[in-house]
Amino acid sequence: MVERIFERLTVIGLGLIGTSVVRAARAAGQVGHIVVTDADPTVRQRVRELDIADVVAETSEAAVQDADAVVLCVPVGESGRVVATVAPHLKQGAILSDVGSVKVAVIEAVLPHLPAQACFVPAHPVAGTEFSGPDAGFAELFQDRWCILTPFERSTEAGTDAMHRLWEGFGARVERMEPRHHDMVLAITSHVPHLIAYNIVGTAAHLEEVTQTEVMKFSAGGFRDFTRIAASDPTMWRDVFLNNKDAVLEMLGRFTEDLSALQRMVRYGDGDGLFELFTRTRAIRKGIIAQGQETAAVDFGRRVGPEVSKKDV
Amino acid sequence: MVERIFERLTVIGLGLIGTSVVRAARAAGQVGHIVVTDADPTVRQRVRELDIADVVAETSEAAVQDADAVVLCVPVGESGRVVATVAPHLKQGAILSDVGSVKVAVIEAVLPHLPAQACFVPAHPVAGTEFSGPDAGFAELFQDRWCILTPFERSTEAGTDAMHRLWEGFGARVERMEPRHHDMVLAITSHVPHLIAYNIVGTAAHLEEVTQTEVMKFSAGGFRDFTRIAASDPTMWRDVFLNNKDAVLEMLGRFTEDLSALQRMVRYGDGDGLFELFTRTRAIRKGIIAQGQETAAVDFGRRVGPEVSKKDV
């Protein structure tokens, strides 16, 4: 017996995450009626064709009418503007939530527009792929991934609990965290890795000594792993860096300090230092696989390979 | 009808690459008799149990007796020492080759020990996984991957052709390149990506504000992709950095220059600059997928996902 959490759910923004929320909510059967919208008319049309929601509204004002919960799935830089638009149309007691990769800046942007009675439960599902748009979404995206809720003084306990159960219904594991701590954790586990990946792919595209064709042909030596995350949605990621500047710069500072030390090891031929670091980093991957956040399949299962024995992971 | 390229092939060093060469050679049926050895007695024992070679010799001197071709599959720092050991025992006309990720330093290390008549064909199959040891190898590892040959004045045309055909028989595509150019290409497509991955995984392991458990739990946001290559064999990679220092430092210099510019964009909130870079980097991935060096499957096929339409890749 599935618990009905919301009679009427509205999702604003129909990209990878937004349409995955819609698909997961329908698959889980936790909501009665799903109303969606997107600022882009071609996206709205595509979502009508995909037939994943009950109603595709023309405007966000119309979409939020009578909604018990509204989930913003727009780039984080849009959050304040969207809430300013929909606020006068929110039902009394409606729960507002989001899926942004940044939490402090979203709270700051939303707060001035939040109606007096409204509950806002900031949320961030740590899941995604390198693809964007409504066709990229799928119901299983959040399965076994973490969703972080960052309740603050404007989040009611009932609203936070409802979002908690909604995300659990999507197959996610839910954790609660301080907004500021969230931004620091994600800076190192997601934002800086993306920045570095974008950077090396950019560097490789601009060399005189090595052609782009060579970069592509011989990418299996490591480079191609970086290109996956450097193919992520540009608008979303621009907004992440603009809105989590302090934590990103702080973590990037640590990274570059460590890189200078590593560069010195290479320059001075410090084999013991290199070996020690390269041994230590193996342990982290074992932990990630043990946490169920990664596959132990050889090469991400890209190719046919041997069974992986316990001792190897 | 398979072409018999060598009557007797010797492989020295029985890790991921060495045992994959052995398995591929047997699967392809291009060699008559396969003799192997490894400096580590437990590895030799394991390879006997795996029963992938005709003879597991106790020493490299014994292993190379009567061999038509000898392929070194040892960490690049060992190349000179191994050749010094086996040189007096090489058959007249034997072809020597290797699989090292670095070519100039290997040639320099091997050259002083190379017998007057011997032919040395440096080779580098651009393939691998994050696993090490004799159990990690598999015959299909080189399928559709590139193998770069870097013939130089001590490589005969006949020897180079034989190695070319051997690697093609393993399913690889073969390219010939200047040794120095190889080292520059691989510095950007493989060595610097590994260095950066090792570095960020190391940085993440040493934060006070963020626990290791948090790093592991929330790694699906991007970080985990880096951990795969930061789990690669520490000995092999230490030797790569010690032996391709100049090219690695050169490419790392470009990377850090670009990173400083990117850091400034974040600091100054240059959204247009960020968006422009993030859009540009998408094209490189499309090229890699078009080159057949990567899968277009969502998330490396880690999870169940939608079909990927042509327009998305």
UniProtKB/TrEMBL annotation, chains A, B:
PROSITE patterns (UniProt xref): PDH_ADH
Gene3D superfamilies associated with the record: 6-phosphogluconate dehydrogenase C-terminal like domain (1.10.3660.10), NAD(P)-binding Rossmann-like Domain (3.40.50.720)
Organism superkingdom: Bacteria
Domain Prephenate/arogenate dehydrogenase: 7-296
TM helices/strands, residue ranges: none
The reaction(s) this protein catalyses: prephenate + NAD(+) = 3-(4-hydroxyphenyl)pyruvate + CO2 + NADH
Any one of the GO BP annotations: tyrosine biosynthetic process
Keywords recorded for this protein, A-Z: Amino-acid biosynthesis, Aromatic amino acid biosynthesis, NAD, Oxidoreductase, Tyrosine biosynthesis
Enzyme Commission number(s): 1.3.1.12
One GO molecular-function entry: NAD+ binding
Pathway: Amino-acid biosynthesis; L-tyrosine biosynthesis; (4-hydroxyphenyl)pyruvate from prephenate (NAD(+) route): step 1/1
Family indicated by similarity: Belongs to the prephenate/arogenate dehydrogenase family.
Record-given protein name: prephenate dehydrogenase
Organism: Lichenifustis flavocetrariae
